[in-house]
Amino acid sequence: MDFGASDAPLTPEELDKDALVQWPMIMGGVVPVVNLPGIQAGQVKLANTTLADIFLGKITKWDDAAIKADNPGLALPGTAITVVHRADGSGTTWIFTNYLGKVSPEWKTQVGNDKAVAWPTGVGGKGNEGVANYVQRIKGSLGYVEYAYALQNKMTTVMLKNRAGQFVAPAADTFQAAAANADWAGAKGFYVVLTDQPGAKSWPIIGASFILMHKEQAKPAQAYQVLKFFAWCYANGGKAASELDYVPMPESVVKQVEKAWSEQITAAGKPVWPMQ
Amino acid sequence: MQILSEPQAIETTPPAEAGRRPRLNVMDRFIHGVVMVSALVVVVLIAGLFAELAWGSRLSIGRFGWRFLASDAWNPVTGEFGALSSLFGTLVTTIIALALAIPLSLAIALYLVELAPPRLAAVVGGAIELLAAIPSIIYGMWGLFLFAPFMADHVQPWLQRLGGGVFLVSGPPMGIGMLTAGLVLALMVLPFITAISRDVFRLVPPVLRESAFGLGATTAEVTRKVTLPYTLRGIVGAAFLGLGRALGETMAVTFVIGNDHAISPSLFASGNTISSTLANEFTEASEPLYLSSLVELGLVLLAITILVQIAAQLWLGWMSRGREEGR
């Protein structure tokens, strides 16, 4: 196996246990999407505790007082809220449940943070596309997907209240605002979780996608080609990433990553990167 | 073997060809061996499957024991797993499917054999066989994109008005859930049961039916008193084939059942079946206990399938004995 990828970062201990090295490749937002006929993207505002209470099954109707309080003047229907979550294990779920745990102590103790959890309520779709499909087909539903899926399927996103108490809409600039907080230099093994970041403009649910590789490589030439590919992605993939509103890694982080490659990935004791 | 050897004895009677007999017997024994080994492979395969699944689920069996079957917990975070919600969903969707598909299939088969003009019967028969050949993922996509919205907008609100919106028909009409899954399954098993029933109805000896007609029986009477009793074994066999398919159907169900580990009295609620859970969760189950619990779900499904087979055999045996005593 040449490399693997995950949205849920491994802790430094887990990396050491399996002799792996991980680095962030790209950052992106996870966004709640709704199906409320007549309501446009960005019209519904949800406080962070409200979102958690909906996913806990405590708020079950769209005209609940807690939702109305943040949406004066918006005609919310009395329909039931159908929560749509992932049926398969996924890094998106890991990021989303990590966020819910940060804003709701009840979520943290009752449900927790993992790639798959025991959802208190709702229906499960397989993959981002499964969740997107269910949300588009169930009136009154609320789900979460990677932002690219919401964008491509023209789904109705909502505004979320961030840690600074501001309502923000999911977009490239709010993702970048949150991503700018990340302290990659100070994180061992690039273990950085980007949910619930400070800053008035920060979108509260973003995460990085990580690449994983074995520290000890049997085929140095092949490993070199893999790393060369990722170096090319860092250098040339920014535009494609921005088109889908992913956030490219900053130049300074790319330098740190390439330093980690040269220090940690070896073949028979010799560094694989850069080519000797 | 005995039947086969008689004509051979006659063939080889001329003394000039007597030498062929032992060679034929070697051939006989060789073929006997080949077919026997082929048959035994099936038994070995099933035993192997059982052993493999049991071995794979040893972690989960050791941890939960029999509680696995009685617990509706499914929590990857705390590592608590139970099969009850999957068992429930598997049984409920299968029951809905068979309750609809069996009577409908028999009606179609009877019409094709007894009443339909031969040309129409050929067209409908061909259509049914075509229905059986459609891949299950197509049923799943049709179910999700067309059938589920139709259920949500028309059928479920109507059922809720009819049933008062409580118990079986409570909760929001999502269009996705147990009922929709059961209906899609019914459609999927229908062609199998119909095709087999039609074929067994055709096997009724014409002399039996003609005698009944000759005695002045109506078509309804012939159907009820001659065709159905004569073909009962075949019909039950067809139903069990449909049952087996409904129990194990994966993709179509995964699309429309909603994949939630909960037990709800409402047929509108989402649920999960053993197969749908395996399809959804196998790829990302990273914890050993999680994976082991999924394998144990597979073991449970295999056990159910085998139990159903045994029950079918016992029932068929009991039924044919009962009929012989009744004569």
The residue fraction in helices of chain A comes out at 25-40%
**How many strands in all of chain B?**
2
User: In what order do the strands lie side by side in the largest sheet of chain B?
Assistant: 1-2
How much helical structure, as a percent, in the residues of chain B? over 70%
Q: What structural category arises from helix and sheet content of chain B?
A: mainly alpha
What is the level-2 CATH architecture name of chain A?
3-Layer(aba) Sandwich
What is the CATH top level name of chain B? Answer: Mainly Alpha
The CATH topology annotation of chain B reads as: MetI-like fold
What gap, in angstroms, lies between the N and C termini of chain B?
32 Å
Note the quaternary state here.
heterodimer
What portion of the residues of chain B fall into strands of 2 or more residues? under 5%
Shape of chain A: elongated
What string gives the helices and strands of chain B in order?
A: HHHHEEHHHHHHHHH
Compute the number of helices of chain A: 11
The total tally of domains of chain A equals 1
The name of the CATH superfamily of chain B reads MetI-like
CATH fold-type name of chain A = D-Maltodextrin-Binding Protein, domain 2
Structural domain tally of chain B: 1
Topology of helices and strands:
The complex is a heterodimer of chains A (276) and B (327).
Chain A: E1 4-6, H1 12-17, E2 20-34, E3 45-46, H2 48-55, H3 65-70, E4 82-86, H4 91-103, H5 105-110, E5 123-125, H6 127-137, E6 141-146, H7 147-152, E7 156-157, E8 159-161, E9 167-168, H8 172-179, E10 206-214, H9 220-236, H10 238-243, E11 247-248, H11 251-264, E12 266-267, E13 270-271
Parallel strand pairs in A: 3-8, 4-5, 4-6
Antiparallel strand pairs in A: 1-10, 2-6, 2-7, 2-10, 2-11, 8-9, 12-13
Chain B: H1 2-11, H2 20-56, H3 58-64, H4 67-70, E1 74-75, E2 80-81, H5 84-115, H6 118-133, H7 136-163, H8 178-202, H9 206-214, H10 219-248, H11 251-256, H12 274-281, H13 288-326
Antiparallel strand pairs in B: 1-2
Helix pairs in contact in B: 2-13, 3-13, 5-8, 5-10, 6-8, 7-8, 8-10, 9-10, 10-13, 12-13
